[in-house]
Amino acid sequence: MNKKLRFSLVAVVAVALAGCGGTDATRSSVRAVGSSTVYPFAKLVAESFARSNPELGSPIIESTGSGGGIELFCQGVGANTPDIVNASRRMKVSEFEKCQANGVTEVTELQVGLDGIAFAASRGGIDMNLTPEIVYRALAARPFGQEQTAKTWRDVDPSLPGKPILVYGPPSTSGTRDALKELVLIPGCETRAEMQALKESDEDRQEQICTEVRSDGAYVDQGEQDNLIVQKIQGNADAIGVFGYSYLEENLDKVQGLRMNGIEPTYENIAQFRYPGARPLFIYVKNAHLDAIRGLRGFISEWAQMWGREGPLTRIGLVANPDDVAARMQAAATEFPALTASDFE
Description:
single chain, D-Maltodextrin-Binding Protein, domain 2, nine-stranded mixed beta sheet, two-stranded parallel sheet, 15% strand
């Protein structure tokens, strides 16, 4: 973007800051919305930034879910819109296009680290070696297009306990739910050749069969509150929870991770993508706000100082980026390259 156009965008945001009513009229705090999984990391960065910059307002971090946060982020520019969206999945092409249509024409994508979709139970509770196919057959509304009849885990696989299927997990607005679909449910569904063939002939039908979760009480949507899922499984030895690895790491005194394909959900297994639920975590920055919102550049710099392999974020469960990605992200955190349509190809 040329300097004149960038200046014009900054001016538009500055006018919006001055023209909005209420507290947003003089907003001096960075505002971030989005993923409940990224939330604890963003909060720690915000606390560190506030200590180092007492003259600025403490960044406001809201847990709205990845999808809900991106919706807010892409509404436009100005003080009544977020500066950052945290996401536990990559922005979709359709969301990028909505941003563009609403004047959010320059967005920088930063991969802040890795996480894993952890399946967990209470310490001393139910213990299983899961696979994507087992999880899919247990949770799908219509597994492989057939009626869902499984009541217990043994109904799914005779080697598993005869305990009732009860899984507490994220809602449809959550990036964790999207990752559950992409990393576990779809691979589990596509273990059948007919499901792979259906993708070729009727992709929408295949997606519905592979990703629609049962609604008969076996899967319980707990909203954007991963800590509540921890509480639920801690209080029920037969229940399983699905949340980001960081929450498992933070609560190992209360819960235990369940194996997937025989692989434990650990830092090293996620970092090396051995664990099937490994996924990247992102923040998206509204470039038009960089020079209009005080502290925004500094807040991004704080992220970059804290996300390294020996940084404070790894102590609360973030898995650091591989070295090549880490080098690119360090540069991006100062240069702010804008996403383009070709980045999604």
